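Quick question, first post here. What does this chain look like in 3D?
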Amino acid sequence: MLLAPERSLCEKNQAIVVSTDKGNSRKHRAINPQRMFDIRQYQLDGDLVKYEKCCDYLLVNDSQRNAYLIELKGGNIDEAVEQLEAGEDICKRELVGYQFLYRIVCTKAKTHNIQKIKFRKFKEKCGSKLVVRENVLEETLQ
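> Answer (accepted):
Ran it through. Tokens below.
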């Protein structure tokens, strides 16, 4: 099982979970208010998933049945979309009944990149489930 609880990088009720690339300033910070949610964090790309491209991290909120797919990216937004979709394909068998939420934390979200057809179609499909921020994305889990 790829997403076994003992492989999680965080404690079950950890207050703050940070997903970051070593040597880069891009990061996703998830706040677990009053440590109320049971959560798990996995580094997918390069750790659990070695021979295919996928997103960097998966944060699972078991209490609310939400799965956050997190991609930390320079500026290639189209590649980030592909990696998020690949991460979902890899994880969905183990997360049946979970809602997938997509997070892209990039160095620069240049206008011409976010206007490309691939990104726009993904954004239309995902709606509010997709959040894109530059450098740091901090959110409170719900």
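Residues 77 and 113 are 6 Å apart (CA to CA).
Residues 77-91 form the longest helix (15 residues).
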